[in-house]
């Protein structure tokens, strides 16, 4: 009987400790990498874009958060994503750095722009705010072959078009231009996109 009583006490303590640890668990995105301010939803209020890193997690994950200002001067979290940007030390690289700089964010003409440099391919992603979401609308990419030619890609998800061409350094002449019609049912939302999704466009 005594053993049964002790068993129940131990079980209760374990459950309580487990529940407490779950409630008090918080992320460790405490290192501010970048902060940008500007009007993202055309209400003449200053909104905020924050990029933070978790320094405790050995993979070095990054979190993007977008805060929109309210008329009462308060700010409200609109988007939080931990998968849009590749970790600094991805699991598949077994402790090695991913080899790429951290993306830059800025606000241009009311749109959020992200610049990346992945394996020497420079990309620009443009997101617009519409109906409480940030939608990916345009992608442009440039890659240099290390000699005299750049390969460029311009994707417009609003018109469902993808244009690819080459250009020689120092020349305005466009070579091997190709236009592709894409099938886009709906514009991707920033919170649904991962680093791998963006790389596969």
What's the count of strands? 11
How big a fraction of the residues is strand? over 45%
Principal-axes shape call: globular
Which regions have little confidence, pLDDT < 50, spanning 5+ residues? 1-25
Task: Summarize the structure in words.
With 201 residues, the protein is mainly beta. Helices cover 14% and strands 46% of the residues. The strands form two sheets. Strands 5-6-7-8-9-10-11 form a seven-stranded antiparallel sheet, with no helix packed on it. Strands 1-2-3-4 form a four-stranded antiparallel sheet, with no helix packed on it. A hairpin with a 7-residue loop joins strand 2 (47-54) and strand 3. Mean pLDDT is 88; it is low at 1-25.
Helices and strands in order, then pairings?
Elements: H1 2-24, E1 29-38, E2 47-54, E3 62-69, E4 75-81, E5 104-108, E6 111-118, E7 121-130, E8 133-144, E9 149-156, E10 161-168, E11 174-181, H2 195-199
Antiparallel strand pairs: 1-2, 2-3, 3-4, 5-6, 6-7, 7-8, 8-9, 9-10, 10-11
What is this structure, in a nutshell?
It is built from two helices and eleven strands. The protein is mainly beta. The longest helix has 23 residues, at 2-24.
Descriptive terms for the model:
2 helices, four-stranded antiparallel β-sheet, 201 residues, disordered N terminus, 11 strands, mainly beta, seven-stranded antiparallel β-sheet, globular, 14% helix
